[in-house]
């Protein structure tokens, strides 16, 4: 099922930006959709954004739409999440996950260990 390693988290001020990266290995990266999700303190796991294997389809939750941008570089086995206009409620542990197929509608079978994002002044 592969492995993934997230990076790019840290402390940012409200209104600031962060760019998360997730490098995957152990499978043919370009064949599978990828997702970013987050664990928010006091809440369950939230899906943030997804991208199909061919980049043609992207999805954002309402909280992410207009502020976050997902992208991928299949040659580098990497998926990115550019986060702008950050809010304190964006604080959480951000994970990337691999889908079972090239579609973001499919389930997920491989998760990274997460990168912590803290938004605070």
Tell me about the largest β-sheet.
Answer: 7 strands, mixed
Radius of gyration: 13 Å
Give the termini distance in whole angstroms: 39 Å
Strand content: over 45%
Give the overall silhouette.
globular
In round numbers, the mean pLDDT is 94
- How many strands in all? 11
Number of helices: 0
Order of helices and strands: EEEEEEEEEEE
Model regions low in confidence, pLDDT < 50 over at least 5 residues: none
Percent helix range: under 10%
Structural class by secondary-structure content: mainly beta
Report on this model:
The protein has 121 residues and is mainly beta. The protein is 0% helix and 50% strand. The chain has strands at residues 3-7, 10-12, 18-25, 34-39, 45-51, 58-60, 68-73, 78-83, 92-99, 108-111, 115-119. Strands 2, 4, 5, 6, 9, 10 and 11 form a seven-stranded mixed sheet that branches. Strands 1-3-8-7 form a four-stranded antiparallel sheet, with no helix packed on it. Strand 5 and strand 6 form a beta hairpin. The chain starts with a strand and ends with a strand.
